[in-house]
Automatic annotation (TrEMBL):
The name this protein goes by in its record: Homoserine O-succinyltransferase
Binding site for substrate: R227, D357
Quaternary context: Homodimer.
Family the UniProt entry places it in: Belongs to the AB hydrolase superfamily. MetX family.
List of catalytic residues: S157, D323, H356
PANTHER family tied to this protein: HOMOSERINE O-ACETYLTRANSFERASE
Length: 379
């Protein structure tokens, strides 16, 4: 008997691959050729090709944003709460494109791909990526799909930074920019967290200078530590307290350094273990560096309003009260710059205790706000 999916699910989806032979010039001075992007689509592109929405993923995200790849798949795409018939990103109205960025480890060309110059995996030889590079590659994907202008580019965290960059790099090709839990650039504290995570990977004995695939190993310990450090910053103190408190795994303490005694310890180790089995260490380095490098205001001596002056899109920004990784003050910096630049901008600060991860969760006020905004822009 075939599986019946919920009415608001996009159901079964199949990833697609776009191949490009022309060299892609990168900000680091190198170029990449050939290269490919893996993506998924949901909904139908209208005859005017005016209803397309691009979804940009965050650090550890990928192309599988909604629906299921198999009938027996238990967990849907990472933003399934937002994408589907009747959901905020309504696939009855919009044609939605979600991709895995270059440098990723979910099918798009990245460090684990074969370098045509050597016949081996790129590993540490894969070029450093920037948000501008990703947006450039996404524009070429849009060309391939016959989309000259996005109805909206939407993303949370690092995805929100890509949405913002779209409004700067291709002002004529985006009508609405929706940046959620984002920032105009990383603070010193955020760069520091990323560096700690990178050092955990770089100093793992199994990293082998980034060429661990040739050795048949994975820098698992480094990846686990990097994920554990990162995950702490994604949750608020209140969220961790409510979820774990000082709960113990067993009835008594063991008084040693090796046992998993607290529930929060168990949770972090599980997250690290799961992550190390599915994510590429070189990709993690690339993604965190792209975060560090993002600073669009640098082109105008730190004046973000001048940088955004070229934008033609309407903007919607959202932040979450307990997000201390990208706090509301960082979103307000973008809002202030947009207002100084004379742009049309909406802003909502959502009271949510889940921390930075709130942008991934089905928080009613958040979903309602996103739904209201997108209803107003549907062709």
């Amino acid at each position: 008997m075939p599986v019946v999916f919920a009415e608001d699910s996009v159901g079964l989806v199949t990833p697609q691959t776009a191949h490009f032979n022309e060299p892609l010039a990168l900000a680091c001075g190198r170029s990449l050729a050939p290269w490919q992007l893996v993506y998924e689509t949901y909904g139908t592109l209208n005859p005017a090709r005016s209803n397309a929405i691009l979804i940009c993923h965050a650090l550890s995200g990928h192309h599988h944003a909604a629906g299921f790849h198999r009938e027996d798949e238990r967990k849907p795409g990472w933003w399934d709460s937002c994408i589907g018939p009747g959901k905020p990103i309504d696939t009855r109205r919009f044609f939605v494109v979600s991709l895995n960025n270059l440098g990723g480890c979910n099918g798009s060309t990245g460090p684990a791909s074969i370098n045509p110059a050597s016949g081996k995996a790129y590993g540490a030889d894969f070029p450093v990526m920037t948000v501008e590079d990703w947006v450039k590659s996404q524009a070429l994907l849009a060309d391939r799909l016959g989309i000259s202008q996005w109805a909206a580019v939407i993303g949370g965290s690092l995805g929100g930074m890509q949405a913002l960059q779209w409004s700067i790099s291709y002002p004529e090709r985006i009508r609405h920019c929706v940046a959620i839990a984002a920032a105009p650039r990383l603070s010193a504290q955020n760069i520091a967290f990323n560096e700690v995570a990178r050092q955990a990977i770089l100093t793992d004995p199994d990293f082998f200078g980034g060429h661990f695939k040739e050795q048949g190993v994975v820098p698992k310990r480094g990846l686990m530590l990097a994920r554990m450090v990162g995950h702490i910053t994604y949750l608020s103190d209140d969220a961790m307290g409510e979820k774990f408190g000082r709960g113990l795994k067993s009835e008594k303490l063991n008084y040693d350094f090796h046992s998993v005694e607290f529930q929060v310890e168990s949770y972090l180790r599980y997250q690290g273990e799961e992550f190390s089995g599915r994510f590429d260490a070189n990709t993690y380095l690339l993604m965190t560096k792209a975060l560090d490098y993002f600073d669009p205001a640098a082109t105008h001596n730190g004046d973000l309003a001048k940088t955004l002056a070229v934008a033609k899109a309407h903007f919607c920004l959202m932040s979450f009260t307990t997000d201390w990784r990208f706090p509301p003050a960082r979103s307000r910096e973008i809002v202030d710059a947009l207002l100084r630049a004379g742009k049309n901008v909406s802003y909502l600060e959502i009271d949510a205790q889940q921390g930075h991860d709130a942008f991934l969760l089905p928080i009613p006020r958040y979903l309602q706000a996103l739904d209201s905004y997108l209803q107003g822009i549907a062709p």
